[in-house]
Design goal:
Blueprint lengths: L5 H7 L10 H8 L3 H5 L14 H10 L3 H16 L4
Length: about 80
């Protein structure tokens, strides 16, 4: 079995993060929607319908200038880091 690159390992272990601005490009490259890219449920379990509010927010965030994207990500990361919330 071939070993993985240190960069891939860093992404998998959360040591590196994909910039929000790269998500649309990544989704297009992989041939999936932004919703599918962000969704961690098995593909057979996904519901179809209108885009969820989260996807709409992600799309709006990707349109922001990079400094504003980073500010939004800082707020999100701080909220997610709070235990019990």
């Amino acid at each position: 079995m071939a070993s993985r690159s240190p960069t891939i390992n860093a992404y998998e272990f959360g040591q590196l993060r994909v910039p929000v601005s790269a998500l649309p490009i990544l989704a297009r490259t992989l041939g999936v929607s932004m919703e599918e890219l962000m969704d961690d449920t098995p593909s057979g379990a996904r519901k179809r319908g209108p885009a969820p509010k989260l996807q709409q927010h992600l799309e709006r965030i990707t349109a922001l200038p990079k400094p504003r994207q980073r500010a939004v990500m800082d707020v999100i990361e701080a909220m997610l880091a709070q235990p019990g919330r």
